[in-house]
Amino acid sequence: MIMNNKVKVLSLKPGTKYLGLAVLENKDLIYWKNKFIKSKRTEEKKVLNRVRVILSKIIDFYHPKLIAIEKLAYPQAKESRLLNKIVKEIELMFKGKKLRVYFYSPSEVKSFICRNDKPSKMNTAKIISSCYPWLYKDYEKEKNKSWFKEKYKLRFFDAIAVGLYCLHQQRRK
User: Fold this and answer.
1) Antiparallel, parallel or unpaired: β 8-13 and 66-70
2) Which has the higher per-residue pLDDT, 136 or 95?
C-alpha cells in the first residue's frame, strides 16, 4: 500500500529492437528513454545481456520499489520467440530482488489513461504529453508520421502509461 511516502516505479515496454523505459517517483517523471537492444545481426545472447545490463544500471541508479511491465497481448508479440525470451529474462532478473513486479495489459492501461477518449497508442501519447509538456515535441513527431512508419518514441510513452497505471493500482490497495 502506498501512503504519502515517495514510491519509485520502473516501467517497461518490452520490444525486440527497443526497450521503452520510464522511472516515476509518484507521478513525477524522472527518466524516460527508448534503449536500443538489437540490430538485424545481433545474436540473441547479446540482446538478453544488453537487457540485463540496461536494467541493472537503472535499478542501481534509481532504486525503484515497483516494476511495471506491459504484458505481451497482441498475437505478433505473443508469437515472437525473442520477445518472449526478453520478458522471461526480465522476470528472472527481478525474481531474486526485493522488488514487486506487476504486469498490465495494454488495453487496461490505455483505457485508464484515455478515460474520455478512444483508447489508442496515439491518444495515450497525446494525454501523457499534456501531463508532461516537455514530451509534446516527441508526440508531435510521431503523430505526423505516416501510418506505416515506425513510431519509435511511442514505446517510452507506453512505458510511462504503464508506470502511471501501476501507481494508480497501488494507491487503490
Assistant:
1) parallel
2) 136
Cell 518514441 found at: 153
Q: CB neighbours (10 Å) of residue 63? A: 11
- Which residue type is seen at 142? E
Average pLDDT, stretch 99-121? 94
With beta carbons less than 8 A apart as the criterion, state whether 8 and 19 touch.
no
Q: What 8-state DSSP symbol labels residue 152?
A: T
Which sign does the torsion angle of CA 76, 34, 23, 45 carry?
Answer: positive
CA 98 to CA 156: how far, in whole Å?
A: 25
Average pLDDT, the chain: 90
Residue type at 113 in one-letter notation: I
Q: Rounded to an integer, what distance in angstroms lies between the CA atom of residue 167 and that of residue 65?
A: 11
C-alpha cell at 111: 483505457
Residues in the chain: 173
- 136-156 b/e (C-beta count within 10 Å ≥ 16 → b): eebbeebeeeeeeeebbbbbb
pLDDT tens digits, 9-29? 999 999 989 999 999 999 999
CA separation for the pair 146, 52 (Å, rounded): 33
Helix runs in the chain, H state only: 44-62, 75-79, 81-95, 106-113, 121-131, 136-143, 154-172
